[in-house]
Design brief:
The chain has 9 helices and no strands. It is an all-alpha fold and 210 residues long. Helix 3 runs parallel beside helix 5. The longest helix has 32 residues.
């Protein structure tokens, strides 16, 4: 099992990631506003299934990679730090996009909603990097890599589904609030960008675990 410190730190990372700009957030918000909260929840079911696929693939892949490749931990650590810095820049750059700026979508059937949610999740580079480059930073290679990967993966799924479900159910009110208060959109971007940059520096400077 991961240590309590690792569990708390990864929970905070998962929470920060789910609130940063990305295909899943934009799709779920747009879908909920276009077709109603239930459509957003159905789509979220597909997104969650995509998380499970990534979790299982990454858990077994990370285990094999860290056991077979020397300095694999450091390689993943620096890759994760670089990606967090890139995400921070995407949030902070002058023309950065907030996930709370939504699109108008066509009306889809429940089956298509679930399928599109699943595909959006699978094709989301943010989720791929979360599992392949960030998750390993919170794993102690000396204490059951596979078990730790599965536990941390489940934490990410619970955090992401919980936050996205709340956002899907209140999408209309959230979009209206931020559309009429552009300063809050800018604040949200700066807050997430700063958090991600701080996590990236911490990750890059962290000493290699035994």
């Amino acid at each position: 099992m991961p240590s309590s410190t690792s569990l708390l730190a990864f929970t905070l990372v998962a929470f920060a990631m789910v609130l940063t700009p990305g295909p899943n957030m934009i799709y779920l918000l747009s879908r909920s506003i276009t077709q109603g909260p239930m459509a957003g929840i159905i789509s979220l079911g597909g997104v969650a299934l995509g998380f499970v696929v990534y979790m299982l693939s990454a858990a077994f892949g990370i285990t094999a990679f860290m056991m077979a490749v020397p300095y694999a931990y450091d390689a993943l650590r620096f890759a994760g730090a670089a990606y967090l810095l890139w995400m921070a820049w995407q949030a902070l750059k002058p023309n950065g996009r907030s996930p709370l700026e939504v699109k108008t979508l066509s009306i889809d059937s429940p089956r298509r909603l679930f399928t599109m949610g699943f595909l959006t999740s699978l094709l989301n580079p943010k989720i791929a990097m979360l599992y392949l480059a960030l998750l390993p930073q919170f794993i102690d290679p000396a204490h059951g890599v596979l078990t730790q990967s599965l536990v941390l993966g489940m934490i990410q799924i619970v955090v992401s589904v919980s936050v996205n479900a709340l956002i899907s159910l209140t999408a209309g009110a959230i979009a209206l609030f931020f559309r009429t208060r552009p300063t809050w959109l800018k604040l949200q971007r700066w807050l997430m960008g700063t958090v991600l940059a701080g996590l990236a520096l911490r990750m890059a400077l962290e000493a290699r675990r035994a």
